[in-house]
Amino acid sequence: MAQAEDDATGDDAALDEIAAELYALPPEGFTAARNGRASSAPRALAARVKALRKPSVAAWAVDLLARQGQLAEAVELSAALREAQDDLDAAELAALGRQRRALVGALAAEAVRLADEQGVSVSSAAREEVEKTINAAVVDAAAAAAVLTGRLVRTLEPGGTDEATLAEAVGGSLPGAPAGAAPRPSRDDLAERRARKAAEKAAREAERAATEAERELARIEARRGKIRERRDHLRERIDDLRAELERFEADEAQVQDDLTAADAEHETARTAAAAARKASDAAQKAIDAPR
To answer: Any idea where the domains of the chain sit in the sequence?
Structure first.
């Protein structure tokens, strides 16, 4: 029994390897290449290779993205979207929704470009199918696992990703959900997660408030320091002016004393000059008197 399971697992791996190689080819060359590989494969595997279906152009374009690793960001976004939905975080969900639309549009455009490089034209209708498939991978972990195989044979619809649908959409074996895809959390888990997020949000807001308060404190302290410097400068200037005023007042007092002395000397000299003039006039009169 164990041997049979090992053989089945080995056949699945071999089939998936062959399928990945075949789905890397442009769709028009798929059938001939598939028949050629089937003819050279062991009998048990040959029938399974021959049963591989030709991919639609849209599915093949999505496979191009998967093989180049360009769908990894979409898968990461899908995990973030599921967590935001579980947490009922409306703001985060809206932001992720905008990011998802932009990312899906960009990936669809890149798929069209990659297909064009290989000479395959993707119609507008096929491009819409590409976008729907990427959207399905974003919102559903099982769809993401199927898309990431790079072995899609037909496109997916968001919400239409039950196991039977996925099995029909993938060439080869169907993988399980990615390792990072966890079951939806229980009500208690959600409550705990919401409480943690609320606490984290409160902590972030408190940190922002503290940072803003510290920034305001630093601004006021800087302004206060400049005012203090201005006050100290004015006090120094006032002290200098007071010292200079004292010097001027002392000089003025000395000048006043000198002026008082000069006034006294002036009065003495004036009196002497008047007396001298009077004496001179008297002498002159004596000379001029008739004899």
So the answer is: 55-184
